[in-house]
Amino acid sequence: RAIQYWLDKSTIHITPRWILFTVLLSLFFLRIYLIQGYFIVAYGLGIFLLNNFIAFLSPLEDPSRPEDDGVGLPSTAKEGKEYRPFARRLPEFKFWMACTRGVGTSIVMTFFSVFDVPVFWPILLMYFGVLFFMTMKRQIAHMYKHRYVPISFGKSKY
Fold first, then answer.
1. 70-122, pLDDT tens digit by residue?
2. How many domains does one find in the chain?
3. TM spans, by residue (predicted)?
4. For residue 43, which of 23, 124, 132, 144 is within the disulfide window of CB 3.0 to 4.6 Å?
């Protein structure tokens, strides 16, 4: 209950939450660098974070599926006149929570030698780079095709 209390209090503090995530991620990469091992754990974390990022960028209702019930992004000019805010498949707080848990789990995994599988890390890095590029290319093409922007700048301030 205490953890849930602090999580509920932290929902409005977006910047400090992401600073915490960045610090944890930096500690993880520092640990990987100093130990010179656990590259497969880092690769798994990268895939996990990429998957969450794609879910964060994706709309709640996929406009490319024909079985939509009308709730989602407008698909015709007639529907497009009504403003609808972008609804994410993975909300920001859940995205942060999943990413932070993933980094925390990865840090804990680096304390157990069973996860230190010997791999040639440049191949993993190259493969992750190609996977990231291809996935983001597909996601940006999807955004362009269905004309949605997953970035909201909030209410205008005067």
1. 555 555 555 555 666 677 788 899 999 999 999 999 999 999 999 999 999 99
2. 1
3. 18-34, 40-57, 119-136
4. 124
